[in-house]
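Memo to structure team: turn this sequence into structure tokens by end of day. - J.P.
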Amino acid sequence: MSFDRERAPRVGTVKEVTSLSNPIIKDIRALGQKKHREESGTFLAEGLKLIIDALELGWTIRTLIYAKSAKGKAPVEKAAAKTVASGGLVLEVSEKVLGAITRRDNPQMVAGVFESRYRPLGDIAPTRNETYIALDRVRDPGNLGTIIRTADAAGASGIILVGETTDPFSLETVRATMGSVFALPVSRAEPKAFLDWARKSDVEIVATHLAGSVDYRTIDYTKKPVVLLMGNEQQGLPAELADGAGRLARIPQQGRADSLNLAVATAVMLYEARRHLLALEDNGR
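Reply from structure team:
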């Protein structure tokens, strides 16, 4: 959101806010809606460690909000100082206000409003031994957040959201990433633009598909940069994307379950690709 400076506290000061009817608090609470996040180019994140990590990674904070009980704690004061130095606002609020902002009964003591950041797909020039995740129409915020967190842990180079997806900067998604949304670049594109980029970038698209004929463990993930393309949770990949993939892979399953959770399937693929790359590194020593 673009805060109204007429009603905002002077930059460089800490303003105490106790009322939910305060105009700035109303603006921050509105970030719970995707429309307001997109219009303002900002989103909300909670948790002191997450806030500190984001600032250290160079993200721009618009507003730091902390509960009265956190006042005077060194890490909070450090975050407040960085916020003021970057021209942001600092608000000291009651726990009731913080709970309303984060939609939690027992909120963490610190939250922050950050500028959203997407990496243009055209700026990505994949190199060998890099792995990217492309997600087709991912709908569930928890799944998306878990995938971003897992991709970060597995050393992936970025996330590409294809088509109409859930918002990576919703509070639920950011919460599920445990801060990895600040560490891993996120891009977005329509299916045709994604496939055009993949062809120009000379990447290997490995897509999971129910009709996949190749066991995911037998694929060589080391010859080219790899994009692991994962389909929609309910519908799988559309024909356009499946036809554009270099490999259609399957994850063998036993038992009565006919599919895996999207985040679990993505983790399986990610760590298999990672295993191949580690083996390549070991053989090169």
